[in-house]
Amino acid sequence: MSLSVWLTLFAASWAISISPGPGAVASMSSGLRFGFKRGYWNAIGLAIGLAIQFVISVIGVGALLATSETAFNIVKWAGVLYLIYLGYKQYRSPVAMIRLEQDSVQNTPVHKLVLQGILVNIMNPKGAIFLLAVIPQFLDLSKPLLIQYALIATTLCAVDLAVMAVYTGLAAKVMHLMRNPHHAARMNKFFGILFILAALFMAGMGQKLA
After folding, report:
1. pLDDT tens across 114-155, in order?
2. SS3 state at 28
3. What is the pLDDT of residues 24-63, one digit of tens each?
4. Which residues cross the membrane (predicted)?
């Protein structure tokens, strides 16, 4: 892969990651609830989920999702239902629960934050289909593909981690608002609605990329 091609990939990776979506919502929600230090584990989970999606796209399952309406719908609706569940859970979370998590952040299981990030990404079929369309644009078939795949995956995941760090950090900056029960309840509902809107966006996605 030439330097010019990699720079194009690098720029595209930032545009892809910055675009609001389920990952950004998850990062902001975690930063708000747990602060940057703990909340960033969710971003790590998102990056792992992205890497898994990349592998899925490379081995051809992404093609199945793009061409099989049944497979596409199964994965799509599983992702929709999961995001709706997350949104409902956050929307309905009592203020007291949020404040407790702020006070005992060290007791928050890291593996749960990582797992949530992984699930948010791998249960979004649009990601696999999108990667299937993007990856070939940066491949040089006259050169070893494995190295190129590794470079593309590393670039995408590294940029995504950086962007999600910004989202998590910005949300963590307003953690002080959570000390006010009224603000805490409004913030909780706000992020719950964002999750549900992301789910509805996925639900409205058709077979246009097929």
Report:
1. 998 898 888 776 677 667 767 777 777 788 878 888 998 999
2. helix
3. 778 888 887 788 888 889 999 999 998 988 888 777 655 6
4. 39-64, 71-88, 146-170, 190-207
Question: CA torsion 146→148→149→153, rounded to 10°?
Answer: 140
Instruction: Count H helices and E strands in the chain, helices first.
Output: 9, 0
Between the CA of residue 121 and those of 5, 48, 52, what are the distances in Å? 26, 9, 9
Token representation of residue 205: 């996605």
Residue 196 located in a structural domain: yes
Domain span at residue 199 reads 3-9+20-203
**Residue 209 falls within a domain, yes or no?**
no
Number of separate domains in the chain? 1
Rounded Cα–Cα distance for residues 188 and 96 (Å):
11
Contact 143, 1 (CB under 8 A): yes
Considering the domain boundaries, does residue 14 fall inside one?
no
Specify if 142 maps to a domain: yes
Token pair of 80 as six digits: 């929709």
Q: Find where tokens 């203020």 sit.
A: 95
* Dist. CA 210–CA 205, nearest whole Å: 11
